[in-house]
Amino acid sequence: MTQPTASPTLDTLFKRNLARQPDALALVDPLNKQRITGQPPKRLTFAQADRMISSLAAHFIESGLPSNSVIAVQLPNTIEFALTVLAAFRAGLVVAVLPLLWRQSELTMALNRTAARAIVTMSKIDGVIYSDLAMNAAAEAFSIRHVCGFGSDLPEGMASLDNAIFRESPTARAVIQDGRKAALISFDVTADGFRPVPRAHLGLIAGGLAMTLESDVPQGATVLSAFSPMSFAGLASSLAVWLLSGGTLVLHHPFDEEVLEQQINEQACDTLMAPAQLALRLDEMDLAARMPSLRNVVGLWRTPEQVGSSACWTAKQATLTDVYLFGEAGLFGARRIAEDGSPALIKPGPHGAPRELPGSSIAGEILLTPRGTLGLRGPMVPVAAYAPPPPPSDSMVASPPRDFVDTDYAARIDRATGAINITAPPSGVMAVGGYRFLAQDLQEWARRLGQGALLTALPDRLSGHRLAGRALDNARARDALAELGLNPLMVEAFRDRSSAA
Question: Which residue ranges does the record assign to the AMP-dependent synthetase/ligase domain (predicted)?
């Protein structure tokens, strides 16, 4: 009796690349990593990365983490993130990604909601002591048994992964490599509140394939990822695209414009994964002359309702692919092929990858719901995670099954072109700097700032907006924001010019 062939996982894809080219360059750290984390940048071949992944996986197993348990990860966009995620998969664990800008209360809630058994972080990131943040959150999470960190000056009780990563160990665990197994938990905010969103390896790979095929990333590509990896789109656009192309992944921790340009030119990167606002900004600054090696630019839109009104793409040597992100529900991409560089029309129905190639594999389906909102269906879309609440127990009518996710983005069909126009984000939810907040939470924070104060979103060319608190003076705003538990990197307190005058 033969066992059916299991579908691939991300670790399977890594091992395929390892077997084919063990000495090829696999991972490259940001050039300014010393400033970001206090550690020197690294460059690893597939063979070197494999040894470190095995060492980390052995550490997780020896720490007593059982198969299929959840390990939370809060790391910058450096080699340590890629190694930790792949090591967790090799040890049969499920990774929960924690955004860097979260408050301690959000970290604690995420750890409790996922019953995470361990958390991995960095001692310092951009001057913020994340090791203390992780320890404090872990103390409030009953399920946490292990707290691990990279970097120096780790607090007492936190295990050092810098030591574990270089310690060879024969410890291993037999893990069934099946792409249908749970791989990732990311977190979304909808009108119904905070929502963990689980995904299997196949969902991650489907997201990476949708971007790789639509943007025509070549095999052996050198991909620079400048998008935060703490989401489904972040992992799909970095780890999944890298492993599917079998090339080199160059990491950039957002954001330093001069370092980004230097990395692209020194590594001769041909593919850039970045926030769409950044991609369009580089185009305005003469991308062709300053970064001549680029051939593919993938711009990820956290605000998909703004794609239609965005500037035209002018660079001729590189193509731009717009990737529409709908929180953690799913994504789809559309390459700009018009002569004037305007965004492609998005029509309802199944869409292939590449989109314009007849007979291409179906990446997903776009539909207009009866509510006048955009719906997504396909292999990367976790329908169960967004299922509506069950009817009351006294209801005599069962709710019909749903095989799509309603993104709650308002949309309509253009009668002239037949294309879908996304007109507004979900009501009750506000996106600030790539993070979603409930509008009622922002109103409560504004109230806590005091009379005559204001909590607002200021325009930012990279992230869209950033959160700012206005009070009579900086000290009052900062004290109020600190009382709310906001991460210092998330907010900006500024002086009211009218009162200063």
Answer: 14-298
